[in-house]
Amino acid sequence: MLRRRYAFSALALLLAGPQVASAQVSFINDVAPILKENCFACHDAKKKSGKYDMTTFEKIMAGGVNGEPIVPGKPAEGEFHSLMVTTDQRRMPPRDKGEAVPKDKAAVIEKWIKEGAKLDAGIDPKADLVKELRVRWKPPVPPKAYPFPVIVNALTFTPDGKQVVVGGHHELTVWDAATGKLAKRIRTRAERAYGMEFLPGGLLAVAGGRPGQEGDVRVYDILKAKGKTQDGVEVLDGVSDKAVLVKHLFDVEDSVLCLAVTPDGKTLAAGGCDRAVRIFDLSNGLADAKLTQTVENHADWVLGCALSADGKYLLTAGRDKTAKVWDIKAKESVVTFPEHQNIVYGVAVKADGSAGFSVGADKQLRTWKPGGEGKQVKNAGGHGDEVFKVVANPKQPLLATSSADKTVRLWTADLAPGKVLSGLNDFVYAVAFSPDGELVAAGSYDGGVGVWSVKDGTPVKVFNASPGIVTKEPEPKKK
Ligand code: HEC
Questions:
Q1: How far is the CA of 21 from the centre of ligand 1 (A)?
Q2: What integer best gives the mean pLDDT of the chain?
């Protein structure tokens, strides 16, 4: 699901703007990001290569076994800059471990040391630099028209079933399900949304992040909050407008990849690249949301999660090739389902908790019992490539799966195959049923979004969910 993940880097570069060459170098804004990119992998608080921890300003200046690596004003006298630009065998990063620091970046470090190797006013020399960088980072304003299609990693229907909310680039976009017309844009701090669910009151919980940098779960009022109208589209500020961004549940140092909420809205679970799933109790309302458990049950990224309606079971899908079940009340792992023997991308659960479903890189949909021994009940093939998501219909005993084979498939809860939904032209990463169970929507790697009728599998609308993009969208073939 996460390959080809840097497709947007060209846009990120575009948005980053030109480097300022003449102004005084700022440690936190100019130097620290270069160190984070090139050095922290080995010189963090855990690895401390050469006994050198670079994660605070104080420690950078103190150095490792060889002593102070920076002589303020004299870049050539300490090891810090010299090791980046040296032609000797001993270089930093070590020659066999990585590319040299780009010349223009090394020049920034050199200039900073020449100017006295100072820390910016107002920053504690003992402050954790990764955290400091994260706090200071400002999300870019999404472009009016996208130069590249956005990868659709998540989508959901609005509670009335009339619109589809789609994860954009540093924003959520809302589209009319019947016409594919853009209705609303909501700016977000997260670069990407990976999971989203409406809470019973109509607020939208969104899990997302910026790959390798940060991840979060935030809750937005996208239905009632007001924004400004630009070119006929309402634009809401989910970054700083407190009427739009109503709750910030948590943030971590890498993407949050999945989110699940019980139908009563009392339990929310979200997990991702830090291998953990955080479980929140929302029974006293969002304002009093309480983190009750941090479940670390997988050896690798958690790619999918689902909750049984009674909030008893948490089902998870792992890059560690297993699906697992956690008993939330007993706080223990109850099932490990190993049958996929490859990456498990998605899980779903029957509302009454009697059946678990999982899909993965083995192209299979499998079912098993969340309260059982981890034995498979049945499996079903059909997709021609990796299967990324499985979702359960809220009203009917039906499932939908989405795949790298560019299709969505419908299944009965006993895994009998139903309609194959086509019309998208790339990997289908996201799929969701409408609240009344009558429609299914899916989103693909190239920005495509399709909406189909569950009853007969006919397409309602296929459009590209990248605002302003110019594409020739082929009309869906009627069957
Ligand atoms: C792939 C791992 C790796 C990366 C990335 C890396 N280093 Fe190192 N570094 C090491 C190892 C291992 C040592 C200890 C061996 C040595 O001193 O040559 C070391 C030692 C050092 C030392 C000497 C510390 C002392 O007092 O002994 C300095 C200074 C240093 N690194 C600076 C940097 C800088 C600056 C960067 C980023 C531009 C960087 N390193 C990136 C692995 C790394």
A1: 27
A2: 93
Q: How far is CA 477 from CA 421, 424, 464, in A?
A: 11, 11, 16
User: What do you get for the CA distance between the two ends of the chain, in Å?
Assistant: 29
User: Is the residue at 40 inside a domain?
Assistant: yes
If you measure from the C-alpha of residue 263 to the centroid of ligand 1, how many angstroms do you get, rounded to a whole number? 51
On the question of pLDDT at 87 being above 60, the answer is yes
Pocket test for ligand 1, best of 35, 36, 49, 60 (most atoms within 8 A of CB): 49
Whether 15 is covered by a domain: the verdict is no
Domain holding 108, by residue range, is: 23-136
Our count of domains for the chain comes to: 2
Residues 219 and 79 in one domain: no
Ligand 1 center from residue 93 Cα (angstroms)? 6
What integer pLDDT is reported at residue 134 of this predicted model? Answer: 87
ω into residue 474 within 30 of 0, thus cis?
Answer: no
Same domain, 262 and 113: no
Give the DSSP per-residue string, 421-451. Answer: E----S-EEEEEE-TTSSEEEEEETTSEEEE
With the most atoms of ligand 1 within 8 angstroms of its CB, the residue from 31, 34, 38, 42 to mutate is 42
Q: Ligand 1 within 6 A of 33 CB?
A: no
Q: Pick the residue whose CA is nearest to atom 18 on ligand 1.
A: 90
Q: Are residues 90 and 183 in the same domain?
A: no
Q: Is the pTM of this model over 0.85?
A: no
Q: Which residues contact 200 (CB under 8 A, 6 or more apart)?
A: 263, 264, 265
**Number of Cα atoms under 13 Å in the Cβ half of residue 28:** 21
Our answer on whether the CB atom of 170 is closer than 6 Å to any ligand 1 atom is no
Instruction: Examine the pLDDT at 478 and tell me if it is beyond 60.
Output: no
Average pLDDT over residues 173-200: 98
How many angstroms does the Cα of residue 365 sit away from the middle of ligand 1?
Answer: 47
pLDDT digits (tens, 9 = 90+) for 12-22: 444 444 444 56
Ligand 1 center–CA 43 separation, angstroms: 7
201: left (phi over 0), alpha (psi -120 to 50) or beta: alpha
In a domain, 14, yes or no: no
Q: How does residue 212 score in pLDDT terms, banded at 50, 70 and 90?
A: confident
Q: What percent of the chain has pLDDT over 70?
A: 94
Is the per-residue pLDDT at 6 higher than 50? Answer: no
pLDDT band at 214 (very low <50, low <70, confident <90, very high): very high
Which residue is closest in CA terms to ligand 1's atom 11?
A: 49
Question: φ and ψ at 160, to 5 degrees?
Answer: -85, 0
At 475, the pLDDT band (50, 70, 90 cuts) reads low
Tell me how far the alpha carbon of residue 347 lies from the centroid of ligand 1, in angstroms. 42
Query: Looking at the predicted structure, is the pLDDT value of residue 451 above 80?
Result: yes
Q: What integer is the mean pLDDT of 143-167? A: 97
